[in-house]
Specification:
Layout (H helix, E strand, L loop, with lengths): L1 H42 L8 H19 L9 H9 L1 H5 L29 E9 L2 E8 L4 H13 L3 H10 L4 H13 L3 H17 L12 E3 L7 H16 L3 H14 L12 H7 L3 H15 L5 H18 L4 H13 L1 H11 L13 H5 L3 H14 L6 H17 L6 H10 L6 H10 L2 H4 L11 E2 L2 E2 L21 H7 L14 E2 L2 E2 L6 E2 L2 E2 L4 H6 L5 H10 L20 H11 L1
Parallel strand pairs: 2-3
Antiparallel strand pairs: 1-2, 4-5, 6-7, 8-9
């Protein structure tokens, strides 16, 4: 017996040795890979290049190598539930148990809930589009047999502002993306945030289920083209998710989502992530990210010319100096330059924090200085303030901020770059680009969106695809076109009101409020920032009617209660039934 037990111990020891050896080999291999990467970076450094052509190529390769570390996404931080568990405990979050049909998997964006309908075939899939310069471009494809027909049905319903037809699309396909995004926005505007967030999570869940096996959310080399219509649902859903999780103070989730969203199309940056990613990094106290991002990309992206990055740069450096125990000389210089170039932000901080600085009239609150801010620059300054004001209320920051404001007020005319700052404010920010207008429109911050120019309303404001790019392309096109005037969300809401008349919807007034004109520009000013507020003040049973309609969309887990979502191999009978719905 003792011999057998001794033999078993030896076998266990041998297995343990083999395991340890394998782990050591794996660690050594990882270290070798790291050494190889570092050697490669050193080898391609522009300092070792012999020609200008080689230097450009190597600089591009070096940029990609650095980018892979700065913008790396942590997968587990993309789901807000994980952050809520850290804040409130696992039990508090897991009480809302998942549906048993979806269990046993760590979902990237959202965990399915018990009241979600079962998912059969969603009718969309992600495929590889092309590989270029080490980047893999993916694209979403819609099923011809079913999904494209439902999409035509949705387009017709949304263009005609027919809520019953929109509901019918969701009853046929409870995970139809554009319908989910459309209704989510309607719920958000009516202040039903919970339902809006739930519909958005369902859209993200569907998009994730369609991921290609090679698509990696943590990689900076996986791209999608925003110009492709079928791809835009992922971009819009991620950006709106950033807004929703921010309302829950899930800043880490919002930060990771912003990095992912930027990584999908950094050359295009279709939703202007550069206007928010720095603030979110500061919210999670990742000061090194701001400093490294500026250090690595300021030359190519001119980050410090953006008002938000100019101020974020200074405050990130300030906190770094606190950690290192060094003087605030560098951070003060950065803040002084930010105040000199964009004094409106300093003025707004003083007003919102009730700071009394007697010398402000000399520069920061000087009327002529504030007039030098263009409409577009004013818009960006107010956008930054709305998102970052809490950062400037920190007791450690207040005295440092005041001291530097007083310095600029007193010495602005003798500071280096004073004349250039005047010219920059008047000439650089003349008109916001389309991605910035799209960012502001979706964010729906009234004080900011009220400053959108008329050009923002020359394209569609569909809630599922606001302000599409002029170079859009798709595998198929809508069979119907929207009338040039009129907003889809407001037209949809109008149709839910008592006494709705399709022929006179643009002139219909409820409680003295013209619902059809909320987003139409009026002269040089427009009412984009007012439409949400006015909608929330509408009297009557509007909110009740909308929630009752949406409640009918939650089909129980009973499979018989929900029509199957069909795909390419479906029968002719199913295909004909969908065509009847379209007719």
């Amino acid at each position: 017996v003792s011999t057998q037990s001794t033999g078993k111990k030896r076998k266990k020891k041998n297995k343990k040795k083999q395991r340890n050896q394998a782990q050591n080999d794996e660690t050594a291999e990882q270290e070798d890979d790291l050494d190889a990467i570092l050697s490669e970076i050193n080898a391609i450094s522009p300092r070792n290049a012999d020609s200008s052509v080689t230097e450009n190529i190597n600089a591009h390769q070096l940029l990609n190598a650095v980018q892979s570390t700065t913008l790396t996404v942590i997968r587990k931080n993309l789901n807000a539930e994980n952050e809520l568990k850290r804040m409130f405990g696992r039990e508090a979050v897991e009480n809302r148990s998942q549906n048993s049909q979806f269990r046993k998997k760590n979902y990237v964006f959202a965990s399915p809930k018990s009241n979600w309908p079962p998912m059969t075939k969603c009718g969309i899939q992600m495929v590889v589009d092309k590989t270029e310069n080490g980047k893999t471009y993916f694209k979403y494809v819609h099923s011809k047999a079913n999904y494209q027909k439902l999409q035509q049905m949705f387009w017709r319903a949304s263009h005609l502002a027919d809520p019953h037809a929109v509901r019918q699309v969701l009853e046929i396909h409870p995970y139809h993306l554009d319908t989910l995004l459309h209704l989510s926005e309607v719920c958000r505007v009516s202040e039903d945030t919970q339902t809006a967030s739930d519909l958005l999570n369902r859209a993200l869940f569907c998009l994730e289920k369609a991921f290609h096996p090679s698509f990696n959310v943590t990689s900076v080399n996986c791209r999608l083209d925003y110009n492709r219509t079928e791809n835009r649902a992922l971009f819009i859903s991620l950006f709106r998710q950033i807004i929703f999780v921010s309302l829950k103070s899930c800043w880490q989730t919002a930060f990771e989502l912003s990095k992912l969203l930027y990584n999908l199309a950094p050359e295009q940056d279709p939703l202007a992530c550069l206007l928010i990613i720095d603030t979110l990094a500061l919210k999670v106290e990742d000061y090194n990210f701001v400093l490294q991002f500026i250090d690595e990309f300021n030359h190519s992206l001119k980050l410090t010319m953006l008002p938000n990055f100019a101020y974020s740069f200074s405050i990130a450096q300030f906190y770094k100096e606190i950690v290192e125990g060094t003087s605030h000389e560098h951070s003060s210089e950065l803040l002084q330059n930010a105040i000199l170039n964009y004094p409106m932000i300093a003025q707004l901080i003083c007003e919102n924090c009730s700071f009394v600085i007697e010398s402000n009239s000399l520069y920061v609150m000087n009327e002529n200085v504030l007039k030098s801010h263009t409409r577009s620059l004013t818009q960006q300054c107010k956008l930054y303030l709305e998102r970052s004001i809490d950062l400037w209320k920190d007791t450690k920051v207040v005295q440092w901020f005041k001291r530097n404001v007083e310095f600029v007020n007193t010495h602005h005319s003798t500071m280096s770059g004073y004349q250039e700052s005047l010219q920059r404010r008047k000439t650089v920010f003349l008109s916001p680009p389309l991605n910035v207008m799209r960012h502001i429109f979706i964010s729906d911050i009234s004080s900011v969106s009220a400053l959108l120019p008329q050009t923002a309303f020359e394209s569609s404001q569909d809630p599922h695809d606001p302000m599409p790019p002029p170079s859009s392309y798709s595998d198929y096109q809508p069979e119907t076109t929207r009338p040039r005037n009129g907003n889809p969300v407001m037209a949809f809401i109008n149709s839910l009101m008592p006494g709705f008349d399709q022929n006179t919807q643009n002139d219909q007034e409820i409680g003295g409020v013209n619902l059809g004109g909320f987003l139409a520009p009026v002269g040089e000013e427009n009412r984009a920032g007012q439409w949400g507020e006015q909608l929330r003040n509408i009297p009557g049973d509007f909110g009740v009617a909308l929630r009752e309609m949406l409640a009918n969309l939650y089909i129980q887990d009973n499979q018989n209660a929900m029509p199957e979502v069909v795909d390419e191999a479906d029968s002719d009978d199913n295909r004909e039934s969908i065509e009847d719905d379209l007719d």
